[in-house]
Specification:
By secondary structure, this protein is mainly beta. Strand 9 and strand 10 form a beta hairpin. It has a single domain, classed as Beta Barrel (Lipocalin). The chain starts with a strand and ends in a 6-residue tail after the last helix. About 10% of the residues lie in helices and about 55% in strands. It has an eight-stranded antiparallel barrel with strand order 1-4-5-7-8-9-10-11.
Length: about 180
Amino acid sequence: MSNWDLDPAHSEIEFAVRHMMVTTVRGQFHKFTVTTNFDEAHPELSTVEAHIDASSIDTGMDARDAHLRSEDFFDAAKYPELVFRSTGIKKAGDGYTIDGELTMHGQTRPVTLDAEIGGVVPDMRGGRRAGFSASAKISRKDWGLTWNGALESGGVLVGDEIKITLDVAVIQAEAAAAMAPSGVA
């Protein structure tokens, strides 16, 4: 088992939520870190932890992003970070389930991610690289994100179910350190 560091240039954390009951708004977080202690031979023994900067939310619309950072939603000034910590990994068919705890908006709740290992390959610089994808559906209300607006036609402005997807590339830490310029870890 060894530590693997995030390759942010090849990683994404995205989400999708229904808007006005008829369309889907998608967005992503641009600033995050992921650390994993990955056991290639026994992935179920691995661990993962992610820290996400709530203020880095981006849906492609500045006014909506400002509202999402506000007290109505993430309250990024008071709760600047979302954190996921794995508590267990199990084999599930061709993939895995990652049980963990998600802390968001000051509340911690259990979450299960459906995950796949994309593969482990030699890196172009002589190290090793791995890719993972994971997804989950959560209820935003479970974390106290309850702001909404009623529509005249019935229904609500913002859906409750949030679909989260992660595509993460990591580099074996020992190889990453060896490839770093002198004085940079």
